[in-house]
Input
Amino acid sequence: MRNLDENAQFLLEYPGDPPDQGRFMEVGTLLAGSRFMRKRTILILDHVEIELMENILRVDESRSGSATIVSLSGRMDASSSPAAEAVLSRLIGSGERRIVVDMSDLDYISSAGLRVMLASLKRLREDGGQLLLAGLKPEIRNIFEIAGFQRIFSIYPSPEDAVSSFDARV
Output
């Protein structure tokens, strides 16, 4: 097997279980650290293709001003939220005290995702830090409101607005 470069596209094909029940194809991108981000899975049965729903969450981080921006895109549920939890825990553990979570590309968040956000906020506050949310789509904002989290989190229209609020406090 040859080594693939970061961001290389991949196609995996394998038999179903049992093999006579069709075959699967996965199309995706190889990310840094040899993590695969599955873009879609297709089940092929007798010349009929059925695209299966994937629980994909992409977590990216960048630096802006005095803050780290963690950008979430896709779906954040019980199977995908550990990816965000790992990044946030690593940042907090390494001493980061100003984190903005950009949710402008987040399509769905479950109670598991809400738990990750709340636990990260609590941990940061205990260490004198702050976690701000930015760019929530109306449906994501509605979930935060139903859970009563709009009273717990500081929510900004954009990541830039959130970072500016940090920089104004310096």
Notes: Confidence is low (pLDDT under 50) at residues 1-5, 32-36, 42-53.
